[in-house]
Design goal:
heterodimer, B: 3-stranded antiparallel sheet
């Protein structure tokens, strides 16, 4: 992280990246599985 | 990974928060087994609750709801290992998953919903309904808003998303 870059700025950058989520992160995903938990 | 909270384990149709019936509050997770295994999710689950106390109510009981025989085998094995490691009886039950009823929107991504600026930024991308709740971005940001993760872990996220190197200069 750049010196002085605040977490909020970093989150904004991350959000920018998240806009590309469907093409960048999940393009390779062929099969998701499901898990269900109850933590009590 | 995508997450949503809801109600499961019971027989009542269309439960709500104020009319839960015989259901238990639970979380449903869609995960990519190429990135994280079911066993790794179970390890987190056992770390995040005691598993040895009796539940005060059905609403707040502890369960592993399994999807298929393989999950049941892994979950039972991990419970037995946990029990042996603790030296105490595990009261958390492992049982087959039934219908998962989604909780009302105001319960979903609860921490993130209170971050007005982030919600305003996410709105045009995902809206505020099911697409928002089910997005990977919302799940991860909700975790960060809840105090999970660090600046370093966010940086790793950025790398994983494949952003240009110039955005990642130290």
């Amino acid at each position: 992280m750049r010196p002085g870059l605040s977490l909020s700025s970093f989150l904004s950058l991350w959000l920018l990246a998240a806009c590309q989520e469907p093409t960048l992160r999940e393009a390779h995903v062929t099969e998701l599985q499901t898990a269900t938990f109850a933590l009590g | 990974m995508r997450t949503r909270v809801g109600y499961s384990g019971g027989k009542q149709q269309s439960p709500t928060y104020h009319d839960l019936g015989d259901h238990t509050e639970s979380i449903e997770i869609d995960f990519d087994p190429a990135v994280i295994s079911y066993r790794e999710l179970l390890d987190v689950f056992w770390q995040e609750h005691s598993g040895t106390r009796d539940s005060f109510s059905v609403q707040y009981a502890a369960f592993v709801f399994t999807h298929g025989a393989e999950q049941a085998r892994i979950a039972n094995a991990s419970r037995d290992e946990r029990q042996e490691a603790l030296g105490s009886k595990i009261t958390t039950q492992v049982r087959p998953a039934g219908t998962f009823w989604r909780a009302e929107d105001y319960h979903q991504k609860y921490r993130l919903r209170h971050r007005t600026q982030l919600m305003a930024a996410l709105g045009p991308i995902y809206g505020t309904g099911q697409e928002f709740v089910d997005s990977t971005a919302a799940a991860r940001l909700n975790g960060l808003c809840g105090g999970y993760g660090t600046g370093a872990s966010v940086k790793r996220e950025l790398r994983d998303l494949g952003l240009p190197d110039e955005l990642l200069v130290d």
